[in-house]
Amino acid sequence: MIGSVPDGDSERRFGRRAMLAATTGATVSISGCVRELRSVVNRDGIDQLELTITTVPADGDRESIQIARALRNVLEDAGMDVSIEMRSHEEFLRSILINHDFDVYVGQHPGGTDPDYLYETLHSRYVDEAGWQNPFGFANLVVDDLLERQRAAAEDDRETAVTETLEAVATEQPFVPICFPDEYRLARTDRFDGWEDAHLARRDGYLGLEPIESEGETGTDTGAETLRVVHTDARLSENLNPISVEYRDQGTMLDLLYDSLGSVDAEDELVPWLAVGWDWDEETMTIDLRERCLFHDGETLTADDVAFSYRFLSDTTLGDDVSAPTPRYRGRIESVETIEVTGEYELELSFATGRPAAEQALTVPILPEHVWSERASSPTVRGVRVARGTTEALVTDNVPPIGSGPFAFSEWAERDYVELERFADHFSLRDDVDRPEPTVDRVRIAIDPRSTSAIELVNGADADVTSLPLESYVVDDVLESTPDDVRVLESPSWSFYHLGFNTRSGPFSNPRFRRLVAGLVDKEWLIENVFDGHARPIATPVTPGWTPESLEWDGNDPVTPFLGSNGEIDLAAVRAAVEEAGFRHDGERLRVRR
To answer: What are phi and psi of 229, to 5 degrees?
Structure first.
C-alpha cells in the first residue's frame, strides 16, 4: 500500500523494481512552436555553462565528495555554474554506467594491472553499452586504431604500442586521471599469520592463512575456526550477483564463491586455477580442467559450464534478437572468438588478440549452466515496463549464490553480515594440488560503514581484518597508534580516482573543452588536502611499470598543467585558455553555445 512501511522482503522487491525501472528509457517530445520561439528569441544561444558533478556522499566515499566540492569551487571561480548531485553507491553506478545520465562525475575507476583494460574503457564499439565499457561515450577513430594495435601487439612491441595509446588518450582527455590512492588495511597477528603473502584485493589474500592457536579463558584450546572480516560497503549484504555492475566494484569476496580458469598470484602472474593448465597453438588455447570439481549444490563442473559461462557473459539473452552482454565482464571476454568443447574436461578457445589481452579472459567467474541458463529471459515485475534486452541475470540478487569456489554461501542478514563456510570438496584441498587453500571453517563478513568503527573492531579484537582500504583521513592515526598485535598492511592500488566526462554532448564532446577543465584540476593540492598525502598524482591511468617517460609526474601534469597554484586558479591564465580553446569568457562567466 502506498505510504506503508515495507518489511525486509518488500524492501528487496522494491529495490529490484527500482533497478528494473532504471533500465527503461523515456522520450520527451518538444513541440514545434517551442522550438520556433527559441529560434526567434535566442538566436545566438550563448549562455553561461551549467553543469552538475555527480558523485557519492561522504559515507560512500569521503574522498570523492571532497574532490567534487573542491572542483566545484574552482570551476565556479572560472565562471561556470556548478552543482553537486550526490547519489547512493548503487544509484551512482547505475546513473553513470547503465543510464549514462550525467554531465561529469567523480569516483574511482577499477583500472587494472595490465593496460589492456583501456580497450574496453575507451573503444567506440562500446559507446552505447552498459558497464565500465566506455561510460564516457568516447568515440575517436585514431584512438580506436591505437587500442586495437596495442591489443594485437606481440610482447616485444607492446611497450611501444601502449605508450602511443597513452599519449593519445592524454591528448584527448576523455577523463581526467587524478591519483592512485595508497591502500592500507589492518589485520590482527594474534589469530592468523600470512597476511602479507598475497594482496587482500585478490582471492589468494584470504586463502593459505595460518591460524594461530590460543588458550581460551577456560584453558581449552580455542583455535581460529572463523575468519572475521569487517567490510565497509553494505552492498555485499544486499546483492550477491557476480555480474552486477551496480553492486560489484571494489572487494574480492565473490572470488571466494566462484572459481575462474586462472588466478593472479602474489607475483602478479596469471597461473592456472580451475584449469590444470593451458597450451597455445598460434591463436588457439587448449585448456584442461581439473576433474571431479563440483558446484556447491553437488552438480559436476564440466567444460560445458565453462563454454556456457563465456557465451552467457557475452550475451545474457543467449541469442535473443536484442543482445544483453554483462556490464561487468564484457570487456575481458571480448577477445574470445570461438569456443569448442572437445571433451568433458577439455575445450579450445581461439582469440583475435595478443596473448596478454587474451589471458584476461581467464579471470572471469565460471557459472553453473543449470542455474544461470534459466535467467536468460526477461524478468516480470507487475507495474514496471522492462526494457528489451534486460534479463533476469542482470537484476537478480542471486541469493543463495551457487559457485564452485573455496567457500560456499551459508547465511546473511541484509546490511549486517554475510557468512561463508569452507567448501570441503574444493580442489585446492586435494593432496596433489599446490594452490592456496581455505584454512578456516568459516568467513564471517560483518558490515560496518566507516573506517573509524572498522578500526575499532580490529583493535578491540572483535574482527581480524579490514577487507577494503581505509579512508585516507584515518591513516596517519593508524600508523601512529596501532596495537602491537595489529599489523598495518600497505599494498599497491590499481584503481584510481578520476573525473569522468559525458562526451556524448557538448561542450564535453569537444576535446579542447575537456583539456581546459583538466587544467583546472590541481592534483598535487588534492593529494595533500583530500588524501592527507596518501596518494600518488598521475597524468596517465596505468601502474608505474607501464607509465612512459613522457607522462611521468614531475610536480605537475606534463600534458594539462594546472592553471594556477596551491588550489587557486590564475583567472587571467584561465581566460586566456578559454579564448584559445575557442570559447567565451566575459570577465565573470564562461559561456558556451547550448
So the answer is: -105, 135
